[in-house]
Amino acid sequence: MTHQLTRDQARRIVVRAQLLDAERSTDVVGVAEELGAIKIDPTATIAPAEHTILWSRLGSAYDPSVLRKAVETDRLLFEFEGAFRPVSLLPLMLPAMRRWPTHPRSREWLDGNDRFRNEVLARLRAEGPLLASDIPDTAQIARPPDGWSGPNQVVPMLDFLQQQGEVAVAGREGRHRRWDLAERVYPADLPEYEHDEAARLLNERRLQAAGIARQKSPWTPVGEAGEPATIDGIRQKWRVDPQALAAVERDDGGRVAFLNPYDGLLFDRPRLRDLFEFDYVLEQFKPKPQRRYGYFAHPILMGDRFVGMLEAEVDRKNELLVVAAVHELLPFDSEEDEMVRAEIVDLAEWLGVDVAD
């Protein structure tokens, strides 16, 4: 059976799947379980991505120390590829990690640096956990600069070993990762899955987090997970999470949410355009004269529509949240204006600052 949905229904499915409906979540690990990944990024005009993503779901009750405890002490979350993920996903990821890399150039670099690889593992075994700066660069072959990392080959080697499941991030010192052997970071009693079964279950988890996704989307790959669906006015075929369909007719009115530019809801840009009619562009890397809404403006979601952009920055010296502008994509009525202002006050309260006059 193919489900026939309106765009309104599809948007409500997405908002609920992303835990941005009226009823706020209450638990950091529970949010991670539902979202699958919480992006890590240090850009902190307001707060780093991992914290604003959780605040937008949990509200002012969110305490950043709870995230750190879940990652570094309780080991209920782990860091991988620039995001915190629930440990329940790890056994589904390990079969693909054990086959990595599949790209010939990456394989050649690893094979050519076999001695370096063994030296990094030996040092971690003897002295870990360590920062990358604690490990000597003895690479025989250097990777060409990629614009993101410098000439030191320790960081790419650690990233490669993490991709293979050999090493893991044990914690952070400020924004710097501390590395250790994966066997000392990951739980020892994880279930085992064959590669195809793990891939199928991983697609189901991706669809659970998305709610609905294009059947052949490179942004949100879900394979044959869920059930087929069509959306009024859109030609492409979709897959929908059957559990999300149970509450598709329930419209609780939603709430206001400020989304960090690296929030997972914003990742699938084609889906944003199709369902939300929101053509989102991150202006962080644009020259200043070309910016329309500011360096790191946060999209404003109201219910199931994007209505504006919050251009704001924390002034830590004066303990103020300075709101440069609230850019209205759709004109606010008095009630909507009041809702946005109330959310700004809540944001400042969570940050421990006042709103600048």
Automatic annotation (TrEMBL):
UniProt cross-references to Pfam families, sorted A to Z: AlkZ-like
Gene that encodes it: ycaQ
Protein name stated in the entry: Winged helix-turn-helix domain-containing protein
Alphabetized InterPro entries for the sequence: AlkZ-like (IPR009351)
